[in-house]
Amino acid sequence: MPDPNTILSTVSMLNALAGGLFLLTAFSLVAIRQVLTCLRVYIFQSVLLALSALFLGYQYASIHLLVVAAITLAIKSLLIPWLLRRTVSQEIYARREISQVLNIPASLLIAVAIAIFSYFIATPLLSAVGGTFEKINLPIGMAGLFLGAYTITVRREAVPQLIGILAMENGAFFAGISIAPGLPLIAELAAAFDVLIIALVMGLLTRKIHERVGTTAVGDMTALREE
Predict the structure, then answer these.
(1) Residue 147 lies in a domain
(2) pLDDT band at residue 47, thresholds of 50, 70 and 90?
(3) Which of 19, 150, 172, 187 could form a disulfide with 140 if both were Cys (CB 3.0 to 4.6 A apart)?
(4) In this structure, is residue 88 part of a structural domain?
């Protein structure tokens, strides 16, 4: 019969691996300049979030977290990307997204500084929670949250900014499932469907703007005036 301590150690290592890859996807969203690739990175990030929820659900024997893992996989990894592909013009995905405030090396340096800053912010909280999984998920989730916010500020295209918003939610969720594993399932469902509605509305809005104006560059749209 497998040793429970060995199983716990293995699950913890798998969660740490998922967390490390999750952080890499947050950096990738800062560096990648092609819209379709950004969407694929978001899908992979959402799969990692679902895996972490699965590992924590096993650790805490929480049916809520297991259901959350399934909902995350279905909505964030499958349904939201499908909606964005259906609602946003294919021209946006076909071309390179080159409109960015800073170049990639400068953006990555700032992103590293943000990640280090996130770990410093999370340190006082880690002393309060103290669990193995919390020490992994909390700082990485906060880094994902801040890097998602930075992605929004550094991008000038509407779709990558929307992916940045979704990545922020993923980061907050990655931290939240570790510090509040007993959160009622209805709250998790409400958050998931809120994100789904946001993605649907923003996708439709982006498509209409692109059809009318011919661009989704946020800076260009600020110059529009009503006739």
Answers:
(1) yes
(2) very high
(3) 19
(4) yes
